[in-house]
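User: tokens in, sequence out, please.
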């Protein structure tokens, strides 16, 4: 199986509705939810042809963390401006990485789902994915959530995003070119299509093995433990 998420298909169980307490919900998507009924097994796919170029491939690879041999995946569908996504990141992210990802048992990937109700979520996603091209996605991910209050209310967040990125040691001419050309936008749109076709309309939402969980209070650890047990790890 390819390490690139645009070629990665996740089996999920479609439940009736995915908006839970602690989730931020977008406007209903016109894209049909995958699967015909609750409990049906399906896959996350994108509409149209996913982008395939050197920038998209590098950005895609850069937002994946963990041992390539791990049999269990945790995919987080998230929005950098979502307060509930930040709540989960602040409370649970580092512990999940420490206990499951750095131990080699779980592979982690970030699925962009910038919601229309968050006007600065899309430029933040582009900033993170352009940083991912230089393998700086996760430092940018941490910085965006940590400083969410500083950029979410700005009429134009780009100067702030620029200064945050520069502090991470990113090659700025390349990053700025990526941003100006919206070079990762097609990949972000493909992420959003993939999530919506799986029936996701809220953030954060988590895919673990055959399970889909929504909300900052989701029992991600329990789902990981169950999937690891099933996989024999």
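Assistant: Sequence out:
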């Amino acid at each position: 199986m390819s390490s690139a998420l645009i070629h990665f298909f996740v089996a999920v169980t479609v439940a009736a509705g995915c908006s839970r307490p602690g989730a931020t919900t977008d406007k209903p998507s016109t894209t049909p939810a995958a699967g015909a009924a609750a409990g049906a097994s399906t896959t996350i796919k994108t509409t149209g042809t996913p982008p395939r170029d050197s920038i998209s491939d590098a950005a895609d690879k850069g937002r994946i963390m963990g041992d390539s041999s791990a049999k269990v995946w945790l995919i987080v569908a998230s929005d950098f401006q979502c307060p509930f996504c930040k709540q989960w990141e602040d409370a649970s992210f580092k512990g999940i990485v420490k206990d499951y990802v750095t131990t080699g048992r779980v592979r982690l990937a970030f699925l962009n789902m910038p919601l229309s109700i968050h006007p600065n979520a899309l430029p933040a996603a582009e900033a993170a994915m352009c940083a991912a091209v230089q393998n700086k996605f996760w430092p940018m991910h941490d910085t965006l959530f940590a400083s969410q209050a500083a950029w979410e209310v700005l009429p134009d967040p780009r100067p702030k995003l620029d200064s945050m990125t520069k502090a991470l040691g990113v090659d700025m001419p390349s990053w700025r070119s990526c941003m100006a050309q919206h070079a990762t936008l097609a990949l972000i749109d493909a992420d959003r299509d993939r999530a919506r076709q799986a029936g996701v309309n809220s953030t954060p939402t988590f895919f673990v093995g055959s399970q889909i969980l929504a909300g900052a209070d989701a029992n991600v650890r329990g789902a990981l433990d169950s999937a690891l047990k099933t996989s024999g790890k």
